[in-house]
């Protein structure tokens, strides 16, 4: 199983993690050995200005160049990658990267909120030039569109700070686990973990996991002690740990990791342009600044590729 391979993703907004209304404030901070040295997210940080690269700009198709902008689709419901802030603006890792990619190509990004399932059809119908919405790069998707890798994510597990229930991430049998409805982690419990518990004559995870519509409710269930474990995509877990000011910690390593890809129309000259832009942003340090701003350095890559999915 690859995390969010089909993006049976967080169906409702994880954006609320950014609001101050959550009962998630405490003292201290948390940094686990598996966080890859990621820092606390600081959305107010400014990223250095990006200059156009004439060689990369020369790869941009004439119709896009004449419009002066890249229309980028994102399902703004998945903090810290793409979500709406308290003013309704679409922000996040993918938004900052989209803006930087566009600037490298001598363009301006026009990031538009879109239903996740409509994005790839919108790309092939030329409604959008790019899709940046935490898409996992898969061979199946590469049959329809090009995927330009820019980040790596997987599944992760969090518990309360200090792991008071002595949870073993490899054996959640009988534990109370919070997940968001419709996610790959929810399916993992039903399709993988609970069958393994049954085969080992151990109690299953109750209810196939306690399911919540909002990822923020998943986090709150763990913080409040209603549940013992939280499962989600690794950037979401890392972000929740930082937003809860040290009340949670990641347990074990991120697993089932796979690259995220920028979605581009199949065979478009924009694909090498975008790949070159991502690689240039990696080389000049802008990429690291953006990942650091959102506290997700653990997902950094050092080489962007086109259609390099392993499965």
Automatic annotation (TrEMBL):
Keywords on record: Signal
Main location: other
SUPFAM superfamilies found in the cross-reference section: Periplasmic binding protein-like II (SSF53850)
Matches recorded under Gene3D superfamilies: Periplasmic binding protein-like II
UniProt-listed CDD domains: PBP2_MidA_like
InterPro entries for the chain: SBP_3_CS (IPR018313), Solute-binding_3/MltF_N (IPR001638)
N-terminal signal peptide: 1-25
Short name of any one Pfam family annotated for the protein: SBP_bac_3
Electron transport in keyword set: no
Domain Solute-binding protein family 3/N-terminal: 69-298
Subcellular location: Cell envelope
Domain of life assignment: Bacteria
PANTHER family in the cross-refs: ARGININE-BINDING EXTRACELLULAR PROTEIN ARTP (PTHR35936:SF17), MEMBRANE-BOUND LYTIC MUREIN TRANSGLYCOSYLASE F (PTHR35936)
Family: Belongs to the bacterial solute-binding protein 3 family.
Protein name: ABC transporter substrate-binding protein
Organism expressing this protein natively: Kitasatospora purpeofusca
Lineage: Bacteria, Bacillati, Actinomycetota, Actinomycetes, Kitasatosporales
């Amino acid at each position: 199983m690859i995390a969010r391979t089909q993006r049976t993703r967080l169906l409702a907004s994880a954006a609320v993690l950014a609001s101050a209304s959550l009962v998630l404030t405490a003292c201290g901070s948390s940094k686990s050995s598996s966080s890859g040295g990621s820092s606390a997210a600081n959305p107010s940080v400014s990223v250095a200005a990006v200059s156009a690269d004439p060689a990369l700009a020369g790869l941009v198709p004439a119709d896009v160049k004449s419009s002066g902008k890249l229309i980028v689709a994102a399902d703004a419901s998945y903090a810290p990658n793409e979500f709406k802030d308290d003013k309704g603006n679409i922000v996040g890792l993918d938004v900052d990267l989209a803006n930087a990619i566009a600037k490298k190509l001598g363009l301006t990004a026009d990031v538009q909120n879109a239903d996740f399932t409509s994005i790839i059809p919108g790309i092939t119908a030329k409604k959008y030039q790019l899709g940046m919405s935490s898409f996992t790069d898969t061979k199946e998707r590469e049959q329809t569109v090009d995927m330009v890798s820019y980040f790596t994510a997987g599944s992760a597990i969090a518990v309360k700070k200090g792991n008071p229930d002595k949870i073993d991430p490899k054996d959640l049998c009988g534990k109370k686990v919070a997940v968001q409805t419709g996610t790959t982690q929810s399916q993992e419990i039903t399709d993988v973990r609970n069958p393994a518990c049954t085969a080992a004559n151990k109690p299953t995870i109750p209810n196939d996991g306690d399911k919540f519509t909002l990822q923020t409710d998943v986090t709150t269930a763990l913080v409040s002690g209603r549940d013992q474990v939280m499962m989600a995509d690794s950037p979401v877990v890392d972000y929740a740990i930082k937003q809860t000011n040290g009340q949670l910690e990641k347990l074990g390593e991120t697993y089932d990791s796979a690259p995220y890809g920028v979605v581009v129309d199949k065979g478009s000259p924009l694909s090498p342009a975008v790949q070159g832009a991502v690689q240039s942003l990696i080389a000049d340090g802008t990429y690291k600044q953006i990942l650091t701003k959102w506290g997700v350095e653990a997902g950094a890559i050092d080489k962007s590729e086109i259609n390099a999915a392993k499965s």
